[in-house]
Design brief:
8 helices; mainly alpha; single chain; 176 residues; elongated
Amino acid sequence: MTHGMRTDPHVSGLNGGRDWRDGATRYALLPLRIFLGVTFVYAGLDKLTDSAFLKDSGAGSIGDMMRAVRDSSAVPALVDLALKSPPGFGYAIALGELAVGIGTLLGLLGRLAALGGALISLSLWLTVSWASDPYYYGNDLAYLMAWLPLVLAGTPFLSLDAVLHTRRRRRTGGYR
């Protein structure tokens, strides 16, 4: 007596051969997307509403923070560039974080938003948190790594990108 062996152990035969694991796989990046989106919106708004942060000098200012990390950063030239106009750099970072966060949450240009988040995290890791010892105490490296799956996968589900993709496919007769 022989029995056939299943090659796909989690196919249930219900729902056209799909089970809960297929759904979980499909939406696996959604919690990461929500976390990063909310975090970056919050970080951008926090910077824009903090009167001390967007100053050239003083307690809690972007200028003093940049001067404090200049000699310990991996790329002092980036810090020197920021020090040419600390408030301008502060606004650029804050508005960038806000744009990245909103784009990620809405799933609009998801890969581009994720790339922006990765670049912001990379620049902060190479400047502000580079001297963290051990390296894993600095959170910017972890944020950089968290952005990479979204750079690769984009925002294909529950997103404006998905809506736009569906519209394009209908308009072109399904070829795309």
